[in-house]
Design a protein that fits this description.
- By secondary structure, the protein is an alpha+beta fold.
- It has one domain.
- The strands form two sheets. A five-stranded antiparallel beta sheet has the order 1-2-3-4-5, with helices on one face. The chain has a three-stranded antiparallel beta sheet with strand order 6-7-8, with no helix packed on it.
- A hairpin with a 2-residue loop joins strand 1 and strand 2.
- The protein is globular.
- The C terminus is likely disordered.
Length: 118
């Protein structure tokens, strides 16, 4: 254990999947997309505060490294779908959705109001 419980959890779960191209830097794990249809996924682990970041979308967890780990791992699957809204070529809204059996649901969104006044 290196005082980064979410990183430890993710690395433990992915040890049987060596093909996943994980980059680790101190308190951060990241995975770059395989192609233009994918998105970058990142986990920032500050021991008691955790952020899962998906190319503009993010979700923060306080003291809940298990949920942060699960969301990071989910974001690496084909069931995760990132939706982005743009206005005047500026991205202002991001939604992470689960897509199981062709059904999209459980949307979590991030909105940047500073881009709302175009």
């Amino acid at each position: 254990m290196n005082n980064h419980p979410a990183i430890d959890e993710v690395l433990s779960r992915l040890k049987d999947f060596p093909a996943v191209p994980i980059t680790q830097q101190e308190n951060t794990l990241s995975v770059e997309p395989k192609n233009a249809n994918g998105f970058r996924v990142e986990l920032i682990d500050n021991s008691t505060e955790f952020t899962v970041y998906c190319d503009g979308w993010f979700n923060d967890y306080i003291f809940d490294y298990e949920q942060a780990s699960k969301l990071f791992l989910f974001s690496l699957t084909t069931a995760a779908r990132l939706r982005v809204k743009e206005k005047n070529q500026k991205r202002y809204w991001f939604g992470l959705e689960s897509r199981l059996d062709g059904i999209v649901g459980n949307q979590l969104s991030t909105f940047y109001p500073k881009f709302n006044s175009f």
